[in-house]
Amino acid sequence: MDTPHSNDAYEVYAEGVGLPAALGLGSLAFGGWLLTTTRPWSHAFDLAMLLAGWGISLLVLVWGLVLTTGCVLAALRPLVRADAAGLCLPADHFHAAWRDIREVEVGTVELGHRDGAAHGGTGPQEARPLRHRAVWVTLHDGSRHEYVTHRPGEILVGAELAGGLSLFAGDVPVTWSDEVVHRPRRRKRAR
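Above: the chain's sequence. Below: its structure in token form.
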């Protein structure tokens, strides 16, 4: 195994951004087409035309812009970055030098589960757990930081992630746990 150079870094990027990016670009194209075919600026003032022409077109254009921008940022900004200086989790705005970190643990969190009956199924027998990869960073001052991937399909390979982080960790222990941490589903408050 090669030792990393001082300017090298281990970075993990988001996966699965192709479909949302395609939807975003399609929404931009459809919104632009809708705006140019309805041409709300060439008609007399009519509230229905204003809402249909400008409102729907601009809504679709903004939706496409948000989707596309989010996908570009996800493709350019790493989820996890480790280098000789320390560990950085840009999605959570977390950065710590290796000298401040006591340990790093990589594992899996099960955040409740989908109820089959709530989504058109026949009941609990169709319930599927939502598993997310998690990185827990414990600092020397006792505080513990947690990063959990926000999309269930974005499951990072745990052993590979722990191995990549350990390349730069030095004396800081980086562990990978097969154990799944179960958490109950959060319930919405009644108003």
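The beta strands are 9-12, 80-83, 86-89, 94-97, 101-114, 128-139, 144-148, 174-183.
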